[in-house]
Write a structure and sequence with these properties.
Keywords (chains A, B): Kinase, Transferase
Mean pLDDT of chain A: 89
Oligomer: homodimer
Strand order of the largest sheet of chain A: 6-5-4-7-10
Distance between the termini of chain A: 20 Å
Family (chains A, B): Belongs to the ROK (NagC/XylR) family.
Order of helices and strands of chain A: HEHHEEEEEHEEEHEHEEEHHHHEHHEH
CATH class of the largest domain in chain A: Alpha Beta
Number of helices of chain A: 13
Number of domains of chain A: 3
Protein name (chains A, B): Putative NBD/HSP70 family sugar kinase
Pfam family, one (chains A, B): ROK
Structural class of chain A: alpha/beta
CATH topology of the largest domain in chain A: Nucleotidyltransferase, domain 5
GO molecular function, one term (chains A, B): kinase activity
CATH superfamily of the largest domain in chain A: ATPase, nucleotide binding domain
Strand content of chain A: 15-25%
Number of strands of chain A: 15
Radius of gyration of chain A: 23 Å
Helix content of chain A: 25-40%
Largest sheet of chain A: 5 strands, mixed
CATH architecture of the largest domain in chain A: 2-Layer Sandwich
Shape of chain A: globular
Chain lengths: 419, 419
Amino acid sequence: MARSPAWASRPKTRGLVLDVIRAARSISRVELAAATGLTGATISEVVRELLGDGLVVEAGRGAPTGGKPRTLVQLNPTARYGVGVHLERNTCVIVVVDLAGRPVARTSFQGVASLPPERALPMVAAQVDALLTTAAVERGKVLGVGLVSYGPQDRGAGVLLTPQPTEEWRDHPVAPRLAEHLGLPVLLDNDAAAAAIGEYWLGAVEPHSTYGCIYMATGIGGGVVVGGEVYRGSSSNTAEIGHISIDVHGDDCPCGNVGCLENYAGPSALVRQALETPGLARRLALDPAADNFLTEFARIAAAANAGDTEARALVERSARYLGHAAVTLAVLFDLDLIVLAGQSFAVAGSTYQAVIQQELDRRLFSRRAHPVRVVPSVNGSDAAAIGGAVLVLQSELTLGRGRPEDGPRPVPAGAAEAP
Amino acid sequence: MARSPAWASRPKTRGLVLDVIRAARSISRVELAAATGLTGATISEVVRELLGDGLVVEAGRGAPTGGKPRTLVQLNPTARYGVGVHLERNTCVIVVVDLAGRPVARTSFQGVASLPPERALPMVAAQVDALLTTAAVERGKVLGVGLVSYGPQDRGAGVLLTPQPTEEWRDHPVAPRLAEHLGLPVLLDNDAAAAAIGEYWLGAVEPHSTYGCIYMATGIGGGVVVGGEVYRGSSSNTAEIGHISIDVHGDDCPCGNVGCLENYAGPSALVRQALETPGLARRLALDPAADNFLTEFARIAAAANAGDTEARALVERSARYLGHAAVTLAVLFDLDLIVLAGQSFAVAGSTYQAVIQQELDRRLFSRRAHPVRVVPSVNGSDAAAIGGAVLVLQSELTLGRGRPEDGPRPVPAGAAEAP
């Protein structure tokens, strides 16, 4: 289809306008032109299209300015939906979010890791279908599924690159297969990156902020967002802070590195350290054979919050190690904000935030330039799943696909590999 | 001036086309359209403008394809020039580069740190003028000056934020003042970031590469380039690897952090360690009172290369610590390449490259995704100065200034602050 040069960049233009409307919550056409640098004619045309597609609606009038009253536009939250599917070791969390990124339905279930992908993925698909039905969401309004997980991935092909949760999952085309089962596009991405972008979409961070997200559930991951987009590096395997070295003289890690953060901080390390503290282990009747150490972690954190001295000391030390890594992340990426997301931060309360903030305040090389704030995620435990859904919304609506370097598209249903 | 929507993005379009011509060395209009995704009509118009401005020239014909022979275009290297001024502690290096980024003239002088900026900057300006005259470069073709230095900066205001080289330099408007003396735009930037982008402009890296540069002269700095642009973070104070912690149990550093890389590796640490090795210190007659420890560093490196066992052990250990930090940089930024630049790498020979490559090969978490190569800079000791000149070329010609978020413009002569 021949297009005049005037609209050669339309997907990016549309995407930019929609993203500014999203961030502003409601905005006039005049303000849109000022914010985007686009001409009034372009704004009128793009807004007309967005109104026609139902993505935005007119929404009252702005404050009187002495001239003609300005009609405001805003997102129409029920115009489109995204689905987030978060695979976290043995748990699967599914959320449906509206165009504004707000969850409208949620479910979770155990046992994913004990099934091979050929049996787990149809089960996940059935859960997604059931949730959409329960939430009475029209299938035609669902843009796709963001499937998010941890560890190295090949986003383009939609495969996990490590034997997690089991060997059978490695290199299995999880995104294409789930897309086939659902008849919806599916994109694969990193859980921490997803959690990071969720903050942006929901307006919890300044639009032009450069921020990092430390994501702690079972392990520790990270993501960085620059100008409203996830920092991708060369292969979208970025900010894996769980496996950076905080101690050059530390122990070898199975990952190949030495003195890795996850062996010092994080839930499994904390539980191990608590088991090595006889008084504490006895008081909490910690179970060394517990399948799910997240339960033991939550109990140690609760004890710390209730005032148990030994528990508190372990949690604070864990937080200092995390703060140490947060300093490295902030220095290298020149961040102005760090968000703490994921269920382990959610259950552990405010100790992590307070101690990490202390470490940043004390140790930042560039603190003469600007401070770095630490805040909890607005999305708490479901940050990764919500972020997965947001990645789909962003991918389909606001990133703009004018050029190939905009990145892989979600894998459409029926395709073996992403284009 | 009213512009039709078709050309609302012209600066970015021109910049993109020019950058593709630069990278390709010579290219036909058909190939340009394919590479950029722009229409043939747009390409023809933009190339006509670039030919008219003298930035590109026609350059013979491409290989026969059976159809009409394709005329090639290429950069006209003598169309424009950039000047790089590198302030490194007490030394100032000045280079003039052509549009292709190739140095056409160079000078250096000592003593910058022993003068207050009010006296040093006019001296620098006089040296720039003299060099341009010597090189017979038309003033009208000089796009501006890239002034590069180390440590935290406020690029927008053109000031250094730390008392380096002396307290009088902190917060002095170095870029605006130099611009006034020269009657040329001056931008301020980081030496390691400059060294990094120099590789890109000269075509020493793949255009879509995500790579890091470790820059070692007196201290250790870093820069990251993504898609042909320096990664800026929130304030352009990024990748300061000299002051990331490699040892959570290490000593406090004056910068506020603990176990900083520069206290383990790098020229001053190596000289200190050599002075603490009696046999070596005696053999090399190392001078503990030496003003310029770079001379002592070069002698230790030369001894190591000549086979001195103790010197070799120190250099290799220093390289392992650097490799350790390189792993962190590569993991967090998801790099596919690391470039080693700066005079200390240049004098020390290939040991650093070999050992850092070993560390990366051994320790990378994401090595299942892709390996990371380590290469020496094509620009060696003058990488920062050359990079400073390249930053001006890029800023003025290929980054495109369609929107405010494209970053600060060079400070024009006569302005107290960048817009």
